[in-house]
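Hi R.,

Here's the chain you asked about this morning:
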Amino acid sequence: MPEQIVKPLLSWYDGHARVLPWRENRSPYRIWVSEIMLQQTRVEAVKPFFERFIEALPHVEALAYCAEDKLLKLWEGLGYYNRVRNMQRAALVLMEEYQGAFPTDYQKLLALPGIGHYTAGAIGSIAFGLCVPAVDGNVLRVLSRVEASDEDILKQSVKTKVEQKLQKVMPPKRAGDFNQALMELGATVCVPNGKARCDKCPLAFCCLALQRGIVDELPKKKAKKERRLEKRTVLVLREGERVAIQKRPKKGLLAGLYELPNLEGHLKEAEVLAQVKDWGFSPIRIQPLTEAKHIFSHVKWQMTGYAVSLEEMDNMDSKKEGMFFIDAKETEEKYPIPAAFATYARYMDIVLGQEKYEER
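And the predicted structure, written out as tokens:
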């Protein structure tokens, strides 16, 4: 890794760093929350989530002792819910072992639940000035192009090698800014998919990929396995102004979240009505709903749906174990429902997670 990248990179960052809510101060808590949220999610999409989360849970203690449903509701729309569960586990460790403060030691940060090398590097360097690298996808893309490397950036050995190279050139007095500068460059200039703005790049003078005309060919990534396809039939069960939801199992996909009732396969109207009757309800009418899809890390759902109006009966909540009826607005306010069901939640006159902010 050429040491000559340091000064031009920092000079560029000083004039081009975006104003972001988590950069308002160097609080390790705010840095931690933002970095976990930013995994798999764009900066602009994260901003409203971050502000809402920090307002509700402004410090480690609040996060550590937050009720699970409230915590998951705050995370609704960001996906990968185990991340926020790990954050709460880490917050409990911070309360029990460090009186709610973050350790200033890199290895101790790394030992916290859900914190890997990148997040520990980001917190350590930005909040505490530790001279440790923070290597994410943006950084790997920038450096693979600078060095014209054809190594697979998804390999841990490649990431480790990059961390070791960066360690040797990091400026001791501006380690946090250096890490952020590399991330910022990858996020705004050295972007993927043929959109790199090489004419705006402070590292263009030493970029081997640019010199060789292979910017769009890098970085190299091994093709991922195809996701498993699952077909689901989602039901919006209405009894007057109330709708049915149920809680998912404690383990597995979307563990512990609430969902609209759904069944395996793409069912026909007659099959849906038969199932609803089998649950003990009396359907009045059924209406087909639009198809939808949702992509998880290893699974893709192809969904079809039906809205089913039900006759009001006594003990509606006891007909099917785990299913209960609530006011639609109560669902929007209290119960965390994953974005996979967003298309069908609209038929309940509510919006979920990220869509709330997009409509403002």
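The chain has a mean pLDDT of 93.

Let me know if you need anything else.
M.
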